[in-house]
Amino acid sequence: MRRMxxxxxxxxxxxGSTIQFIAEAPRRTQPQLYENETAxxxxxxxxxxxxxxxxxxxxxRIQAHGGQVQRxxxxxxxxxxxxxxxxVGENKTWGHLSNPVSVYTSEDxxxxxxxxxxxxxxxxxxxxxxxxYFSEVYAGCSAEEKDRIYDIxxxxxxxxxxxxxxxEKNDQYVIWFHSDxxxxxNEYLYDIGMAxxxxxxxxxGPFRLLGRYRLNECPKGQIDCFPASKGEARDMxxxxxxxxxxxxxxxxxxxxxxxxxKLNEDYTGLSADPADAVYGEDxxxxxxxxxxxxxxxxxxxxxxxxxxxxxxxxxxxxxARVWSAEEILGSWRNEGNPCVDKGASVTYDTQxxxxxxxxxxxxxxMGDRWNSMNLADSRYVWLPAEIRDGKVLxxxxxxxKP
Length: 402
Ligand code: DGJ
Hints:
four-stranded antiparallel beta sheet
């Protein structure tokens, strides 16, 4: 079954990815050409080696692809909270499809403790009734609700780019992810194009899936780049502003246009129903038709908002681009390619997933170096970044201390 899923997944990812153009993408046929390709970061590691095999504190490979790192409060075990770095991402141990969402924590960004799969995918429908874990998480759900949950998390579904927010108002943790799969009309694995949402009282789970949703649509008077399918949500990220307002940033209109949509107070849905949403207040469309994905948004110390994106070439790397804006729902300015060293035209063979700041103020670019032939062996490339004066600068560094 797993092998069939893997084969279908590979075929799906090949025909399913929107290939805008064939990028100058190095293939991993000569791994020795990549710095750190054979290096291992284990419990003795003292530096980040971008592109190395990265092991957790139990000695297992870290599985948290398409992820996000942030410093956030987590339960301290005595009823209080402590601040720690939390890494959430896709567990790709079994390949492309049905990736559970995993969580790791760290004090120093180098050594990561695994907290397991916090949002689990579901192998068989009957497990929602018979498996003690799922019976408890989905207790109280009707048979129809369980059918719906299974339909989102079953072995043929896509669960990608999970991100987490902590909501101080109700002490709840919320995960958003790209929920996809084929439909009765189309076997393309990315035909559903929705945003999945799950909640928990703890970042360590268990997260309970609430559902999956289509989001805001191109307003009247603007040119919709894919009117056949309204409100799509694919590669995504979350951003929490200093005042607590949170946003979901995602690619829509068949990967042609990025949207930024404001979330409600609980962070579990949009600030307004798409039918009532006000353009410029509840959401904004940026770069219509530019075909960007893998968005990572942050706010610099200069108060500007920055978004880094990739082009849309499936698992192959391509050139990154940054835009900046004074207002998150305002107008965005093209700031060009943030990468400056050899490999800059393909983002050092990575795709963006997060820009975060360390406790000491260092910005970090977090990218995935996908290995489409063995997605579980995709590597993490983290690099120190500079963000200021409307620019993001990401030089290459083969080894560095955060
Ligand atoms: C590019 C996206 O950024 C990834 O998350 C994944 O969906 C691949 N496409 C699949 O081809």
